[in-house]
Amino acid sequence: MVLHLDATAFRAWTRACAQTLSSARAEIDALNVFPVPDADTGTNAYLTFAAGASALDALPQEAGLAELVRAYTTALLVNAKGNTGVICSQLVRACFRDLDLEAPVDAAAVASAFRAASRAADDAVGDPVEGTILTVARAAAQGAEQARDEGVDGRTAFARAAAAARSALLRTPQQLERLARAGVVDAGGRALVVLLDTTEQALTGRAPTPTATLVPVPVAGGDDLVEGGPAYEVMYLLEADDDAIAPLRRSLSGLGDSLVVVGGERLWNVHVHVDDVGAAIEAGLDAGRPYRIAVTHFADQIARQREPRRERVVVAATTGSGLTALCAEAGAHVLEFSRHEPLTVDAVGAALRAANAQEIVVLPNAARHVGLFEAAASELRRDDVRVAVIPTHAQVQGLAALAVHDPGRAFDDDVVAMSSAAAHAKHGAVTIATEPGITMAGPCEAGDVLGVLSGDFAVVGHDLVEVAGDVLERLLTPSSELVTLVVGEGAAEGMADALSARLRDHRVDVDVEVIDGRQEHYPLFVAVE
């Protein structure tokens, strides 16, 4: 069967990669003993690929395959986290750079793409070590080349490459003493195998045989986590000419280890472990313009465990100055976002760390935020912080949860009460179409008013008040007691008053609360409890 790539399948594949890495994140983190046992390889890989999938959500549905691939590989590069995230981003970029997106993908194309990816990853690492993700990538390329020589089709060639990677992963403890001592396979290699297994299943429909990863033994930590090893991880994006990269590599390789530099076309992602942070940044300044500089002191992970913490904090993602102020007044730590300033993995992680609490309840308030907060939560859980991410998909669900929050209750009881309140808050919204399209309620044109029910477009009309009334009627049930109207930018004058009057006429048993949310793009959020 001839293998073709298309935009729809590519979008689905990016989401599947993020989802499987999310599921395997804790397992991969537990395997992380090399190069530094900081237990974040799985989280870094997930955050990298979640950022890639999120980048495609911002593109219109009619975007072509080439545009999707370009946006995805760029997002992987600029959002890559940690050693493994950076290397995986380079592997994916090199694979797609070598593929002809318009042509059928045969075994020769698979083999060529895998070999190009392996070489690019080897070239990116300052001091390649056997028994790591590089070894697994090289084995995958060899498996694809052997399949090509046997004359199989593209799907079979990819399956052979994935199988070779799984076999190579199981051999990594024989190649790297630190893995053998800990009783684990390489964490980065395991992350790559998860990605390859996901892709194989997408291509063939068959779930690969699960890969054994062995059981890790505890690794004692000191200030540097590895005796004699560098104390800091330094990462930054770099704008620089290609000919500046070789001198940069030489400078950084003399300062520390775990050096990885990936990218091209004047945009690079730099990762290195050093003791002299200033010198690592100065090397970037000599090469070009470093930005988004991130420095992690490995010992901070231990120090955070010793700091006194608050008992319990609620962290809520909010949009609109009115909603943000309301949540803050209710005692939540707010993390504001907008369409032009979406939440990033760094902001989410920083917000949870800044809460400095023994117990944290998170209200993501958008479906796309849940995975980001879950990844950040997993890091805090390793520090014995209790974190519950309540999967609120709408701002009004977060308000309902916050209304029943009681810090005097036991943590589990508080989470159950907040989760129940959020789940029972039926929610809707009204927005304006910015371009023609097809919705579940039929076609729409730019400027049409769209009614949203539980995240799906369910009403198409021309009048804000009429569409809002339709949404409200569909949400109401005989047992409804409270309607909350959150008015945003672009709301029709008197809309809230008109809806309130309509409710008083037909449902005198229902109370109405109006909130000035000032959220963008949504003239109205609605909740019915």
Summarize the structure.
This protein is an alpha/beta fold and 529 residues long. It has 19 helices and 16 strands. The strands form four sheets. Strands 13-12-9-16-14-15 form a six-stranded mixed β-sheet, with helices on both faces.
Structure report:
The chain is an alpha/beta fold and 529 residues long. The strands form 4 sheets. Strands 13-12-9-16-14-15 form a 6-stranded mixed β-sheet, sandwiched between helices. It has helices at 7-31, 41-57, 65-79, 82-98, 107-124, 133-150, 154-175, 177-182, 187-204, 245-253, 277-287, 300-306, 321-329, 345-355, 367-381, 395-403, 411-424, 464-475, 495-506; strands at residues 232-239, 256-264, 267-274, 289-297, 310-318, 333-336, 357-363, 386-389, 426-432, 437-439, 442-444, 449-453, 456-461, 482-487, 511-516, 524-528. It folds into 4 domains: 7-204, Serine Threonine Protein Phosphatase 5, Tetratricopeptide repeat; 232-298, ACT-like. Chain A, domain 2 (Alpha-Beta Plaits); 306-424, Phosphotransferase system, mannose-type IIA component (Rossmann fold, 3-Layer(aba) Sandwich); 428-528. 49% of the residues are buried. The chain is globular and about 75 Å long. It is built from 19 helices and 16 strands. The model is unreliable at 214-226 (pLDDT under 50). The longest helix has 25 residues, at 7-31.
In terms of topology, how is this protein built?
Elements: H1 7-31, H2 41-57, H3 65-79, H4 82-98, H5 107-124, H6 133-150, H7 154-175, H8 177-182, H9 187-204, E1 232-239, H10 245-253, E2 256-264, E3 267-274, H11 277-287, E4 289-297, H12 300-306, E5 310-318, H13 321-329, E6 333-336, H14 345-355, E7 357-363, H15 367-381, E8 386-389, H16 395-403, H17 411-424, E9 426-432, E10 437-439, E11 442-444, E12 449-453, E13 456-461, H18 464-475, E14 482-487, H19 495-506, E15 511-516, E16 524-528
Parallel strand pairs: 5-6, 5-7, 7-8, 14-15
Antiparallel strand pairs: 1-3, 1-4, 2-3, 9-12, 9-16, 10-11, 12-13, 14-16
Helix pairs in contact: 1-2, 1-3, 1-9, 2-3, 2-4, 2-15, 3-4, 4-5, 5-6, 5-7, 6-7, 6-9, 7-9, 10-11, 14-15, 16-17, 18-19
